[in-house]
Amino acid sequence: MMPAEDAALFESLRRVATASLAGVMFKMGLTNQWVRGPMPIKPEFPRIVGRAFTLRFIPLREGVPGAMIKKLPVNRDAVECMPAGCVAIADSRGTMDAATFGDIVVARLAKRGVTGIVTDGAVRDLHGLLAIGLPIWTSGITAPPPATRMLLAGWQQPIGCGGVAVFPDDLVVADADGVVVVPSGLAAEVAKRGLDQERLDAWQMEQVARGVALSELAPLPKQPESIS
Amino acid sequence: MMPAEDAALFESLRRVATASLAGVMFKMGLTNQWVRGPMPIKPEFPRIVGRAFTLRFIPLREGVPGAMIKKLPVNRDAVECMPAGCVAIADSRGTMDAATFGDIVVARLAKRGVTGIVTDGAVRDLHGLLAIGLPIWTSGITAPPPATRMLLAGWQQPIGCGGVAVFPDDLVVADADGVVVVPSGLAAEVAKRGLDQERLDAWQMEQVARGVALSELAPLPKQPESIS
Amino acid sequence: MMPAEDAALFESLRRVATASLAGVMFKMGLTNQWVRGPMPIKPEFPRIVGRAFTLRFIPLREGVPGAMIKKLPVNRDAVECMPAGCVAIADSRGTMDAATFGDIVVARLAKRGVTGIVTDGAVRDLHGLLAIGLPIWTSGITAPPPATRMLLAGWQQPIGCGGVAVFPDDLVVADADGVVVVPSGLAAEVAKRGLDQERLDAWQMEQVARGVALSELAPLPKQPESIS
Amino acid sequence: MMPAEDAALFESLRRVATASLAGVMFKMGLTNQWVRGPMPIKPEFPRIVGRAFTLRFIPLREGVPGAMIKKLPVNRDAVECMPAGCVAIADSRGTMDAATFGDIVVARLAKRGVTGIVTDGAVRDLHGLLAIGLPIWTSGITAPPPATRMLLAGWQQPIGCGGVAVFPDDLVVADADGVVVVPSGLAAEVAKRGLDQERLDAWQMEQVARGVALSELAPLPKQPESIS
Amino acid sequence: MMPAEDAALFESLRRVATASLAGVMFKMGLTNQWVRGPMPIKPEFPRIVGRAFTLRFIPLREGVPGAMIKKLPVNRDAVECMPAGCVAIADSRGTMDAATFGDIVVARLAKRGVTGIVTDGAVRDLHGLLAIGLPIWTSGITAPPPATRMLLAGWQQPIGCGGVAVFPDDLVVADADGVVVVPSGLAAEVAKRGLDQERLDAWQMEQVARGVALSELAPLPKQPESIS
Amino acid sequence: MMPAEDAALFESLRRVATASLAGVMFKMGLTNQWVRGPMPIKPEFPRIVGRAFTLRFIPLREGVPGAMIKKLPVNRDAVECMPAGCVAIADSRGTMDAATFGDIVVARLAKRGVTGIVTDGAVRDLHGLLAIGLPIWTSGITAPPPATRMLLAGWQQPIGCGGVAVFPDDLVVADADGVVVVPSGLAAEVAKRGLDQERLDAWQMEQVARGVALSELAPLPKQPESIS
Fold this sequence. Notes:
Six copies of one chain form a homohexamer. By secondary structure, chain A is an alpha/beta fold. Chain A is built from eight helices and 14 strands. In chain A, helix 2 crosses helix 7 and helix 5 runs parallel beside helix 6 (about 125-130). The longest helix of chain A has 23 residues, at about 185-210. The first copy, chain A, is elongated and about 65 Å long. Chain A starts with a helix and ends in an 11-residue tail after the last helix. Chains A and F meet through helix 3 and strand 10 of A and helix 3 and strand 9 of F.
């Protein structure tokens, strides 16, 4: 079960758009937290929040010699290690010629209570995935299975995904604008600032709806704190 | 209010597909009028027509020294200069890591009566944009705000957008096949030829529906003028 | 009319996902059969199967001298050569600046009973194409007509499409995961193995639905043959 | 032996830079004659001129069934068909993962009196190629042999190379600025205009050397014809 | 003549590698000052330093209507505006299909005392350019002239070049590692820190030459200031 | 000191071109052993052979929280772990905006007796690197230091480099045609077949020099074994 602190943090983050998170993290000096490429396979997915469970893939080596293959992890073992509530996020090195995830693995991940899936590669069995309904962000759709182009090299290591560093237990937030990664140690602060930003945006939208010009919106007449 | 001449021109152009406009302009010697990249965020948008209001962005420079920043334009000033009926078209240099437009600016543009938005970069707040409903053509969706990657360098200057030159007051026409730019001085001629092309296409479709082979369609038995 | 043997083969292939076909062909030593790029213009298209009718395009040459132009084929002649039940598959060299197919040609292809269309380039007249309803897989949508950027160089020759060799009469299978090419001489074997794979996948999905872990699924308790 | 007419044409073209040829062809309405990608493996090669001998490659198909393989041409047969004085120009589809030409084939081409080689793919055995000395324009250097990624599909067909249409017997001219293709039927006119352009450029360079401003160079005080 | 202050600044910057400048600017919060793409046409060029004279190009528009063409600047006018000692730096939008600079313009720029040329596009007349000897950084070599693909839209405006913002009078420094842009207002501080970095690097190289391990080099036993 | 077995293996591999190694490995079923991108910074480097010492980089994360940074390796520690005779090969994820290696680290690697360096990213301090003389294969040259864009995530792990899987202790062979990776367990067999291939190539070259047509070279009149 999720610790209470996490539950509150997740609840806050679920109320903040990735657009706002990217903005507030940039102001905090985190300039590279938006994952390039992955988009939801269905734009109607709700916003998801979860701790990163990282997967690291490398290109295919045919005939991996015996000694090495024993040292290499196996995809199904990684799957069975994922805790409920995590987001499986894969460093697929932008591989579009083979799927990182297919319907059978995704069905199992859904059973295990995984919150969502992110890959900078591709997925397959699109209709099957939509039927399962687990939220998935991917850079493309493809037919060939993973074993035709890639090997799992490890999990819960620091990875790169879509040009962004992801450490195990970072917070992954994903919605219709894509995926952002929130560093674990800064997540509470990011969530707080994100909520402030959402309030500010809501106030601005309201002003715009009344016909106020953008030039009159800034500098702001009130601090966002005093708006709510 | 729009001059009567413009109203007639716009009315004509709204009846001509970008596919037909690209074809007739090519025959007139205009070989580079289709904007590479931007597609509608919702394919059901109606065809739009408007005069180009150009925006020019350059990459981010942190710490722009004081003297220069005063010379630089500000996004909100550009927004408040746009006349009703224009199409805001941005030279975003293909930047996908930050949005050129987000929901607050788009809401204001809608209020001002802008007809549509085109960028060869990205937009953010997808659900918000869809709710506003202003027609938008973009090369991608992203989360980070403009200020994280780009600066507005000017507006109503000649720009490049998706590999095409755009001059202020060019006609921008956009539909489900993308965006074409019609030079202002040639727009009346382009519209006339475009309508002819539409009539010809309609006649061809009718012939095909009757089972006529393509080889019998050309050379054409009648001039398109005599068909209508 | 289709020979009985073909009818049975097509019927089998229509029951096998491209994802499964890509997997079984890889195991048979065919490592490069998934066409990179083309995706369906509507994900709800049914899976299609047909013999490849290949089209080969080259870049535009203005002012092709008279002698040569007579040797060059003409698009409409190619169209009128296509038999019912084939899949028109075009080597468009990834050209996105001009459409390989537009609504008039597609309407005629539908009339001729063509099963579907694949291009590693682009198509135009999106709304028209959706209205016709013929299944189309393409790498993009564009406005300019073919003649602005490309020439038809021949048909029913070996081509490359999306990085894959396609020979006339290869089997083309396409669904929501994209397009695979099945060599004609191996198609019966591929279909048989594909059906086995489908049975295995169905059994695995069933096990997963019951909560079985992936690590218990492999090695498989039963051969797929004994499952059905 | 080369016909006298060709000898004079070749002699003229060897005196015209590809930069000038690209310029004069553009003015003649040929907008797409510069081959994107291929550069000389040694910038000191002299300018070469020759009739195009086209080669067409497609991606690898493993296990091409017997019936088809007999219909496919073989690389060595193509080589033995090339006449002295031609330029071998290959449609390699931008393949960088395997070489289109290696040192043994190139040594044989040199023996046969071929003038030069152009590929929009890659070559291998760089040191060997430099030792042979036959002028080569390529988009890259690689190690794997052709058979690992590509099949020869035919020769002396119309092809695309680096985004340009090439017909058999087109004139290929290559120098340190790359490769241009001159349509056979227009070559005499292109050569004549090219020589005029060279004379004009020489006159302009002379004026610049004397310190004349560019704004005083145009409009030109004299016609280039009267300069020589 | 150059002001004394500039002379000292330029002298300092000429002693600092672009590698060091990129490093010290990053530490000062300037994260995007290295120009992606342009490399010297001859690696032996000395390091150059000069104030940016910016040029802005847009894609070609055929048949620019009369009224507009009068508003458009002309290339030769821009050339004749460049002061001695500047670096001409062009926003060529990555255009490789046409040259931004050719030998006649470059010869004139050399006559005017321009220090060097940078483009994120291409140049032509390679042998001529090497003969002139003016230092040039470019993303490629090509044959077609500028007028085939681009229009000059203005000069001494803020531009983007290789993904970097360049303002008129920024300092441009270029050497074998490429091109960096130093904001005018920060140049004195950047030069000072750059010289410190060079002293530190020299000390480290000396230590390494003596066989000291990298792990013993840091933290540094002495401040770089105390080394010189 | 190197074991005697390794010395003989290395000696054999140094006599086999990467072009031959890529060919023989492909025939053995290893289809993906040529590293895309890295080329020598000086084509005259001798062929190098060494055991892979892998380095793995991920994108920059600013403000890595304290707890994590302690778990992260440090570049200088990796350097000091490299044994004499190895080839340092870096998974730089194609990063061109920052150098993976600069002159100080390379000077230290040369001191430690490292045989060569391979990166699918970039290097900086080009003149310094050439002066040191250690053979380097890289995808580009850049100015910014590593810390501006990347973090070292580990060493002696399985990595991907230029689209190829590299395991610690794989054999890395590099020459003017680029870099190939030879699996450790298959290296003796690959070396043997490579030497056979070299003998066959030498025989073919000799035949070509005598004027034999390629069509007469195959099928071969003699086995390569009987040639030497």
